[in-house]
From TrEMBL:
Protein name as annotated: NAD(P)-binding protein
Keyword Oxidoreductase among UniProt keywords: yes
Record organism: Lachnellula subtilissima
Family: Belongs to the short-chain dehydrogenases/reductases (SDR) family.
InterPro entries: NAD(P)-bd_dom_sf
GO molecular function annotation: oxidoreductase activity
Superkingdom classification of source: Eukaryota
Keywords: Oxidoreductase
Amino acid sequence: MSNPKGSVLITGANGGLGSAFVSNLVAFPYASSHRGIYTIRDPSCAATLKTVLQNAPKTAHLVDSPTRPQKPSSEHERIVLVSSWSHDAYDSRNDSIAICRGDEYKTLWRDPEALSKGIAYHDNGYKAGMRRYGTSKLLHVMFMYELQRKLSADPALSKISVLSLDPGAMGGTGLLRDSPAFIRLLTRYLLYYLQPIMVLLKPNGIARTPKKPGYDLLLACLDEKYLGEYPKAVYLGGSEKAIPSVEARDDKKQRKLWVESLKLRRLGRDTVLKDL
């Protein structure tokens, strides 16, 4: 298409959720009028995505590194970040592997400099790793709120919406390939075959097929009926609006994360944001 109406950029497009999103997108009428840009680390290992793209319109492009983003030209731009219930130490779904059991594990937030170096835990290695994963998702949600404030304060960028989506657990995606043998067995086989039934019984429940959150991600990008025209700083649990953790909603911590991250990364004025 010589004059596409817009573009859809997705990072990690060869992953379980990424490829499921692309599969939903290329089957959607929106794909025929918009350019798809799918970024991955290594094109030679993108067998899953390439299979999906065989049915994609010719406006789809596969790249191995993100292009430099330009100033948005549309009035309906959206940025969607992928979160997880693991960002909330008080979420009961974390109890299944007890990663936050104990008062010392109920606070994931730390000083940004300490977080940049990695928090040392001295218990089970898998639980410690999942706790760090949850912390990374906590920072994603906090970043969503602060970025939305920055964008909304700029008249030229104020119509950009930032959202965060918790896709739920997806068996068979390879996300937990480095987990203990029992966890791999549970997610690769048992959960993989049970989750279609679980989705039918409870669409936004603890386990979902990749296709379901792939479609939820598509809705987060495009839906206006449920989300409205400008869904600013909206957190989604699947296809439903949800409330993130108390830590994630702390304004002061959100601001500190932003400011300290700029210092740690030594970022300057190379941005369209007027207020850093």
